[in-house]
């Protein structure tokens, strides 16, 4: 086989799992479809890590995880896993670019992706006004009006960061109240650049060459209004990156991977760690612990196959 273990996902869980396996002198390939370090690289601060009460810049934390994995000997490739196949004594992972790799163990640590609104214009304006990362793209919207769809924790954090550059940030939330934690709501409402449009559902992204407005519908009256916005960021929740695993691994009703207390999924040699597993608390410290636990389970599985050495 090509590798002893393949880790899918380059966030804290995947990098921690890969590092543990590589330090145990196993051949490890880590596949990440976007950026090594995972979404934490785009967060200004990670709170409660490495210890409760402490914080670290997201980019620094991501860099540290990647450096440790490289030093341990983890091979890393930018590629999107799109298929998992199980054969007798072998697992195969196929990537979107056609490459395929075999191993005895696969650890799934692909995390979550932001849910789309699923409305007209959302796909059309990708790269033309749809904002995917406030920290990455905020400078492009200096002195412009932008919109953030979603009033949860992530939405408000992104909105406040965008407000450092934009003249106004419209926070559009379909529910009648924000769902972010109270302290965060208080900070957001104190920002004069934030405008809250509650009980309004985005129904279309409008524009010609680029985004110029969002069409919203009042949930109480059904009335529609076009509101100016030259950039739109969507944060209406997350879903696990498991579409390619449907029918292959056992998933819960929301699409998260079901595992036992050793982080094993129901196909021999497959494990899950971090936000992608059912019941995960979605915290960096927990993701790191998951990765290490999944690696420990994977090592026991590998040792059960044949002596290492």
Number of strands: 19
- What are the secondary-structure elements, in order, as H or E? EHEEEHEEEEEEHEHEHEEEEEEEH
Distance between the termini: 16 Å
Computed structural class = alpha/beta
> Averaging pLDDT over every residue, what do you get?
95
Distinct helical segment count:
6
What is the chains' assembly state? single chain
Rg from alpha-carbon coordinates? 21 Å
General form: elongated
What low-confidence regions span 5 or more consecutive residues with pLDDT below 50?
A: none
- Report the biggest beta sheet as strand number plus sense, adding barrel if it closes: 7 strands, mixed
Strand content: 25-35%
Fraction of residues in H or I helices: 10-25%
Explain what this protein looks like in three dimensions.
- It is a single chain.
- Helix content is 23%, strand content 30%.
- The chain contains 6 helices and 19 strands.
- The longest helix is centred in the C-terminal third of the chain and has 22 residues, at 284-305.
- The protein is elongated, with a radius of gyration of 21 Å.
- The two termini are 16 Å apart.
Summary keywords:
single chain, 19 strands, seven-stranded mixed β-sheet, alpha/beta
Helix and strand arrangement:
Layout: E1 3-8, H1 12-23, E2 28-32, E3 46-47, E4 55-56, H2 58-72, E5 75-78, E6 81-87, E7 90-95, E8 100-108, E9 112-114, E10 130-131, H3 134-137, E11 145-149, H4 153-162, E12 168-173, H5 182-189, E13 194-198, E14 200-207, E15 211-218, E16 224-228, E17 232-234, E18 238-240, E19 270-272, H6 284-305
Parallel strand pairs: 1-2, 1-8, 2-5, 8-19, 10-17, 11-12, 11-17, 12-13
Antiparallel strand pairs: 3-4, 6-7, 7-8, 9-18, 14-15, 15-16
């Amino acid at each position: 086989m090509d590798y002893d273990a393949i880790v899918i996902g380059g966030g804290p869980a995947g990098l921690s799992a890969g590092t543990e396996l590589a330090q145990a002198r196993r051949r490890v390939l880590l596949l990440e479809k976007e950026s090594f370090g995972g979404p934490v690289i785009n967060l200004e601060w990670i709170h409660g890590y490495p210890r409760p009460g402490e914080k670290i810049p997201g980019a620094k934390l991501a860099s540290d995880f990647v450096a440790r994995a490289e030093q341990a000997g983890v091979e890393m490739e930018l590629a999107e896993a799109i298929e998992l196949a199980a054969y007798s004594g072998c697992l195969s992972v196929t990537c979107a670019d056609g490459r395929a790799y075999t191993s005895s163990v696969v650890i799934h640590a692909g995390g979550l992706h932001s849910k789309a609104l699923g409305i007209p214009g959302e796909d059309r304006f990708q790269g033309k006004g749809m904002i995917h990362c406030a920290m990455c793209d905020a400078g492009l919207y200096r002195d412009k009006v932008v919109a953030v769809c979603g009033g949860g924790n992530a939405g408000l954090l992104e909105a406040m960061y965008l407000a450092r550059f934009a003249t106004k940030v419209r926070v559009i939330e379909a529910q009648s109240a924000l769902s972010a934690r109270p302290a965060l709501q208080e900070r957001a409402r104190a920002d004069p650049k934030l405008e809250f449009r509650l009980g309004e559902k985005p129904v279309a992204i409008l524009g010609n060459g680029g985004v110029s407005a969002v069409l919203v519908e009042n949930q109480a009256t059904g009335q529609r209004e076009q509101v100016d916005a030259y950039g739109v960021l969507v944060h209406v929740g997350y879903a696990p990156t498991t579409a390619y695993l449907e029918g292959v691994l056992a998933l819960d009703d929301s699409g998260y991977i079901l595992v036992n207390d050793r982080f094993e999924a129901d196909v021999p040699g497959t494990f899950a760690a971090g936000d992608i597993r059912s019941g995960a608390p979605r915290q960096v410290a927990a993701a790191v612990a998951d990765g290490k636990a999944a690696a420990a389970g994977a090592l026991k599985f590998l040792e059960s196959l044949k002596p290492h050495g």
